[in-house]
Amino acid sequence: MLHRYNYILTAFIVLMIITLISMLFQDYLELVNIALIHLIPIIVVALRGNFYATALIALIAILFFNVLYVPPIYSFSVHDAIYLWSFAIFLLVGYIITAQAKKIQTNEIREILLNTLSHDLKTPLSSILGSITLLLEDQKMSAETKSILLHDIKNSSDKMHRLINNLLDNARLKDKHLKLKMEWCDLEDILGVALQDFDEAHIQKRLTLHVDPNLELFWGDYNLLVRLFANLLDNAFKYSNQNKQISISISQEEKSVNITFFNESTPLKEQNLETIFDKFYRFENAKDISGSGIGLFICQSIVKAHNGKIKAYNLDNGICFEILFPITKLPTKLQKEYE
User: Fold this and answer.
1) What is the model's pTM?
2) 258 pairs with which residues across the strands?
């Protein structure tokens, strides 16, 4: 978590170095020059497009500049009001650069999204068109070949279906006024629905499932939970070798439901585990694997919408995703309501 905020620490270290240099050469530098070089750490942090971080470093820079250099020194007092304009300029410069950096980042994200969509929709669509063309043109095709082509069409259609659903769910989850469609959900049944999008042969061969026999109904948003399981399954099937096992466990605790998805694969670096749920994050070894990079981001959004927690960690010879859902309502209360 701290890794992603290293730039704030970097800006602070730059500020300390600048302060040290300014104090050593204070007799040779005019106040305006000292003010200008104190803008450097503000620019360093503003380029990351985080308004809060920029404001923090700007306020610290203003504090140092005022106490150490503005008369009377070693005091928070400011005798000449013109220096107040200097402080305002510190904040204004930081705000303008941050706003521009954020705008550039937004454009980059939009471009990544368009590139991803054009690739991830075009590839399965081309496969579907190619298979249908072969089926129409070759009337003497064997039943086995027809079955393979139809199988390819279904797999490609499932990929497009998942991508479109992810985009729709992403748009829905971005709504700050999102209201979940809460209902009683059978998590085992939801997992079964999610599995329907995947190749049955792979499921039979690679999937190991353990569901707590005492698992009760869970109060949640049915469609979002299906999306959560589908995305975690898609991630597990994509990023593990075809001969490796995938294990899913759903267990009931007194106040929570614990869900784990484990797939055998190469362990990830700690810093990658910290950013794995970021939007458009892709695994380092994922160049040849199709994917939009928003699946795990949506998983995290769905879990947060249910006040739960999700984390990823290396375990033995693979990667484990663990979800903890708090139980906010018990089915027994529902039964009483019906009575």
Assistant:
1) 0.63
2) 251, 324
